[in-house]
Amino acid sequence: MKIRLAIAASTAAALAMGVATPVQAAPDTMKKAERWIKRIDTNEDSRVDMEEWAAYRTMMVEEKGKDAKMAEPKRVERSFKKKDANGDGFITADEVLDDGEE
Ligand SMILES: [Ca+2]
Ligand SMILES: [Ca+2]
Questions:
Q1: Cα(15)–Cα(74) distance, rounded to whole angstroms?
Q2: What pTM value is reported for the model?
Q3: Domains recognised in the chain with CATH numbers
């Protein structure tokens, strides 16, 4: 019963953000996705736009020593579009649920 309520809450939150797709993932997975978004979401609108995504990829290269190719504009754009499943220009928590990228 608790799980059911949590899913309902996540769905309500997603709907409040303007996401029409009902969220069906387990609550802990959803929380993980939300945490991931929060790390990248610098203007705190609960979604990641292209600018934030580019800044995140640049940070990964500069601070985490990731391959510099990761921050190339073409790759940034391609990876963003891949994650932005509904193509609205924002990556939301439900769109990164299945991805597993940290
Ligand atoms: Ca944002
Ligand atoms: Ca989207």
A1: 31
A2: 0.70
A3: 25-96 (1.10.238.10)
